[in-house]
Amino acid sequence: MLSVDAIDLHYGAAQALRRVSITAEAGKVTCVMGRNGVGKTSLMRAIIGHQPISAGRIGLDELDISTLRSEDRARAGIAYVPQGREVFPLLTVKENLETGFAPLKRRDRYVPAELFDLFPVLQSMLGRRGGDLSGGQQQQLAIARALVTRPRLLVLDEPTEGIQPSIIKDIGRAIAYLRSKGDMAIVLVEQYFDFARELADTMFVMDRGEVVLAGAMDELDPGQVQRLIQV
User: Which domain, by its residues, includes 158?
Assistant: First the structure.
């Protein structure tokens, strides 16, 4: 579903990505790992259209999205859960979820009941402001907000960062459920190897703006992956 082919990305004169290629398929979790500062978030920003690429191609199915604006990529079926969650603190949980209506046709502008099965705590907090939620609850809200858009590609940038273990398990179960439906490709940026290994079908490890190791999770050497991502 997603094809990133030999992309470069620059911030001014500084090159953040060098000929990076990854793929993500429907019904599978593609995990991107690496130390801090190696280009993982830059890759996500390139995929969702927040930062233009300077070479290469990004495709979604047969559509070349390399130059599409981020809002047009959202309409094409890409949803993003940013690092740090970025919920709207003064909006209620219900209003935060409804911001996901923006790329949808009018007939689809409702919050699927399935989201409250995935994250039951949100249903009991619909009237509470986003800024009053705990970090874990905000992360669940950020994921649910992305899912409101009915994405074909879900991009998650370090969803376990700063989250308590019980909610990490809830997030893991939600990702596993979404994968099992078979109609969504999931790209997961993660720091915790055990969490990633449990969910990933395919893994790409980055270092200094490049992919230095890639393959099916069950074919990679866990020790080699851990050595590459150790700080």
Answer: 2-229
